[in-house]
Structures are given as structure tokens and as C-alpha cells.
Amino acid sequence: MAPKEVYKQLTAECRKIGILGSCASVLGWEERTYMPRGGRRLRADQLGLISAMHHEMFTSPKIGEWLSQLESSDLVKDPDSIEAANIRELKWEYNKRAKLPTDLVEAITKETSIAQGIWQEARAKKDFKMFAPNLEKVIDLTIQKAEAYGYEGEPYNALLDDYEPGTTVKDVEAAFGGLRDDLVVLLDKIKGAPKKPDKSIVERAYDVDKQKIFGESVAAAIGFDFNIGRLDITTHPFCSGFGPGDTRITTRYNPDRLNDALFGTMHEAGHALYEMGINKKEHFGMPAGESASLGIHESQSRMWENQVGRSKPFWNYFFPQAQRIFKESLGDVKLDDFYGAVNNVEPSYIRVEADEATYNLHILLRFEIERAIVKREIKIADIPGEWDSRFEKYFGIKVDNIANGCLQDVHWAAGLFGYFPTYSLGNLYSAMFFDQAKKEMPDIYEQFERGEFLTLRNWLKEKIHQHGFRYRAAELCKKVTGKELSHKPLMKYMTEKYSEIYGF
Ligand code: CO
């Protein structure tokens, strides 16, 4: 068969596999939004079965044969072509997945589905012991997965590679080391600063229905298209891009705090814009129809949440509207005070509610602990103690209860070891991309002041979204910004912003 024909067959088969995967995504979304508690076991079985089918389809010998044929064909002659990238990344993924036995894949899906339910209860009851046996199973399976993949150095490398292809612990450590040192300096300056924002402004009564209206209007303004997307409520917000024409985001409303839902919605909308900007119509099921990495994904969400949503120009435009909608809580507030309040920096327990500066400390802490867990240097029963003592060292405050400590995140229950670093990588990439955007569009802030956000959105679509996984994260970063990953742009951006707000 001619290579073009083989490629066509491969594309058709991958599309089928993609459709099966999207069925699992719909079930996963529903599990976290509307499913009654009683449905847990059945859902675990449904997802387990689909993941096993998905795995068998993707790792079938015929795909391996097609890829081998294509690898030495004319289609890969130009390594920059979409075909070459698709073949390269599929081969990489195929080689990796084929090492996993189907029963391990199914067991991981089932156990993590059950563990997430138990985790939710354990967190509500502040009871680690209740969750420990499930966590133990998940960790055992995760380590089995890493061993099956194989790795250089330490097992964590194998896990990280699932979320950030091509990135190693060494790369992460190089970026995080400088970040840690510079953050300590910045946080010290903030602590001793003469000015302090009044955060109580955003901790007044904010009617949930009004928050919903405001949040949706902001999401629409930055380009979230409600014809091909939905916004629902959940406990742990996420975005799910099912495929062409259907991208879902979720949020949670706190009647006594404006930040959670507003910036959470902008964050997830940022993820959704990426999903909506990938050319899935043409490439669904192939690497070019997927995101480049979780770090790149997070760079998009964090940019809209922070570089845009927590900027002065953004609020120059939106604050009068917010004042009209939340008259009782914001009617008497000045723009500058509000801007300070949404940018308040303060050590806190919960990662997802953390400010831009301390957020990365939360990630450094998790990176450190989960690496040690995977190396079996920390025993399951010792996780709470290890967490609490390291937390105090990083943040200078004592964990008051376990729901505010190691039980706060769903990731470990979900088997997502190796995932946390992608959040901080996302922060680093977002600052680099936004710097470049400002360089290429010097009037970007003036545009924000006029309520125009689509120029930035279109720029991101052209430079990042449309490529899907045609380039790996490091290469994409180089292509867009001309530079290698660095923590410096993020630190520069934060230092400039906070020195103005805090007066240091
Ligand atoms: Co995110």
C-alpha cells in the first residue's frame, strides 16, 4: 500500500479511538457534575471498560505496523510537516502505551475512580485513615506503571512524561530552583511592605446568581463560545474538551468571595479557548488535534486568569460593570482598592485559592513530596506529617486541619503523580508568552481598556492553539518567544506588579 493510503487508514483509526476517548471524557465530566453518589461503582466499571478498549485499540499490532511503514516513508521527509509530526508523536505514544498491560490500565482507571469518591468523603470528614488504603492501591499501581514504562534516573521521570512529553525532572528542577530562590526574596519584600491591600473588599456578600451572570459575560468577552461550550458547577473546577464542537468548563460559587468563581471561570475559559482553537475538525484523534502538553495548557488558563484578569487595564473596563451588578458590595469601592484586593498576596492553605506569588510554593511543596512518595521514601501513613512540617517551612504557618493540608487536592486519588509541576511550568510559560504578545502588540493594554480581548485570543490561536501537538512544549516556546524556558519573565512580571501595589 502507498504511504498516503496507510496514513489515511491510520488517521481514520485514530479518529475512531479519539471518539471512544471522548465518550470517556463525557462520562468523566458527568461524574463530577451531575452523577448521584450511588453511581460511583457503575461509573468506575464503565470508565474501566472504555479505558481497556481504548488501550487495546491504540496498542493493536496493526497501528504499530502502519507506523513502522510510515516512519521510513516520504511522508516524514520534511520533519516540520504536520504528517511527520503526527507520525513521530504517535510512534512515541505507541511505544510507550504498548508497554502497559491492559489489565493494569483497567485497574488504574477503576481504582482511581473509586479512590476519588472515598477521597471526597475523607476530605469532608477530615479523616486520612479512611482514605489511606485506597491511596496505597493507587500509589502501588502508579509505581507499576512507571516500572512498565521504564525510565532514566528516577521513576518520577516516567510519570512526568505523560503530562509534559520530553520534559524531565532535571528540566523542572532547573526552572524551579531559580523560581524558589527569587520567590523567597519577593515574598519577603511583600511581607515588609509599607502598603497592604484591603482584601475584605472581595470577601463581602456576592450574590451567586449575579456572579454567574458576570462570570459568563467575562468568559464571552474573552472569546468563550457558548454555542460550542457549556459552564456548569462542580467542587473541583476543570475543563474538558470532548472534541470538535463541544468543550465544557466548570466553576464553583462562593457567596462570600468574588475571586473563586470569577478567576476560576476565567482560568477554565482560558483552557477552553485552547481546546476550541485547536484544529480538531481536521485533526481530531491525531497529535495535531491535541494540546501540546499540560504545561502549555496551563499557560493559557493562567494568562487569562492572571496576566489579563488580574491586570489594571482589564478592570478599567470591567470594574464599572462589576460595580453596577454588585452595587451593595462594590458601590463605594475605588478601582485602585479593588485592584489591590484581587492581587492580595498572603500565605494560605488551599492551592486553588492562592495568589499568583504563593501559588508556586504550593507546587514546589507537592513536587517535592510526590517525588519522594514515588521513590518510596515517604510511607503512606507519614504523608500528613511530612506535608505539615514542610508546609510550615515553606509558608510560615501551621496546617490547621487535614482538609486544608494533604487532603485538599484530588490529584493523588486520581493517580495523577507527575502532574503538579505542569501548573508552575504553565505559570512560567504564560509570562513568557504574554511578554511576547506585548512585544508584538504594543497596544494590548489599551485594547483591554476598551474591552477588546479578541486580538490577544487570535494571536494565541495563531501562535499556539492551531498547532495542537505539532511541536513539543520546549520547541513551541522557542518558536513563539525565541527563548528557552526561564523563570525570569514571571518574576519580572510579578515584581513590577507587586512593587506598585505594595509600594516597595
Ligand atoms: Co488549569
Describe, in plain words, how this protein is organized in 3D.
With 504 residues, the chain is mainly alpha-helical. The protein folds into 2 domains: 3-150, no CATH class; 169-502, Neurolysin, domain 3 (Orthogonal Bundle). Helix content is 64%, strand content 3%. It has a 3-stranded mixed sheet with strand order 1-3-2. Bound molecules: cobalt (II) ion. Cobalt (II) ion binds next to helix 10 and helix 12.
C-alpha geometry? globular
**Widest beta sheet: strand line-up:** 1-3-2
Bound small molecules, which ones?
Answer: cobalt (II) ion
Q: What would you report as the Rg, rounded to the nearest angstrom?
A: 23 Å
Number of domains: 2
Low-confidence stretches: none
- Give the biggest beta sheet: 3 strands, mixed
Order of helices and strands: HHHHHHHHHEEEHHHHHHHHHHHHH
What is the tally of helical segments?
Answer: 22
Helical residues, percent:
55-70%
CATH topology of the largest domain: Neurolysin, domain 3
The CATH class of the largest domain is identified as: Mainly Alpha
Reported CATH architecture of the largest domain:
Orthogonal Bundle
Distance between the termini: 69 Å
What structural category arises from helix and sheet content? mainly alpha
Strand portion, in percent?
under 5%
In short:
The chain is mainly alpha-helical and 504 residues long.
Write the layout of secondary structure elements.
Layout: H1 3-31, H2 40-58, H3 61-71, H4 82-97, H5 102-125, H6 128-149, H7 155-163, H8 169-191, H9 208-221, E1 229-233, E2 239-243, E3 246-251, H10 259-277, H11 280-283, H12 294-308, H13 312-325, H14 327-330, H15 335-342, H16 356-374, H17 383-395, H18 421-440, H19 444-449, H20 454-463, H21 473-481, H22 488-502
Parallel strand pairs: 1-3
Antiparallel strand pairs: 2-3
The protein binds cobalt (II) ion.
